[in-house]
Specification:
Rossmann fold; 4-stranded mixed beta sheet; 9 strands; globular
Length: 188
């Protein structure tokens, strides 16, 4: 088996349930370590420091200058980024990031598994965005950018998983992971 951890990347428009799936994957798979992203946006009412490392723009920009990110992007006026991962020994890395970030990761780690997560339909996506407390302007901006995010996501993704039920979708991703791990253990 390769000594390098497998890098698994969940992408998709805001509201498709990437965060929920990431938590379910970590619960179901004892060999996944979730990297915590940085952001300059303020926390939503239900978010804690376990969800993101919330920082001022100046601190984020300083980290960019110091090359501390695996990937970073500006999206809807806020900065988001993934620090260079340092998982515990024997664990694979799980990233929950946007499509721009996945494109950067793909260039740096070509064998990363990129999974595009989709919502059942636009009505579900809108309901999820509203359900998490986003203001109207943010909901509209997210819905407007979703089609382009999906198109870009399909170009970079290795798999597309419909998040119609988080347990089923997590099970599908775990099955993909198990297959990749088996393939990595089998000599070519």
């Amino acid at each position: 088996m390769s000594g390098e951890p497998l890098v698994v990347v969940l992408i998709g428009p805001g509201g498709v349930g990437k965060g929920t799936l990431a938590r379910r994957l970590v619960e179901r798979d004892g060999h996944l370590w979730l990297s915590r992203s940085w952001t300059t946006r303020p926390p939503r009412s239900h978010e804690t420091d376990a969800d993101y490392h919330f920082v001022a723009r100046e601190e984020f920009e300083s980290a960019i200058d110091e090359d501390r990110f695996l990937e970073w992007a500006e999206f809807h006026g806020q900065l988001y980024g993934t620090p260079r991962p340092t998982p515990p020994a024997g664990e694979d890395v799980l990233l929950e990031i946007d499509v721009q970030g996945a494109e950067q990761v793909r260039r740096l780690i070509p064998d990363a598994l990129v999974v595009l997560v989709t919502a059942p339909d636009e009505t579900s996506l809108e309901a999820r965005l509203r359900g998490r407390g986003d203001d109207e302007a943010h909901v509209r901006a997210r819905l407007a950018s979703a089609p382009e995010e999906m198109a870009r996501g399909r170009r970079v993704a290795d798999a597309v998983v419909l998040n119609d039920d988080p347990d089923r979708a997590a099970g599908e991703i775990v099955s993909i992971l198990e297959g990749l791990r088996r393939a990595r253990r089998t000599p070519a």
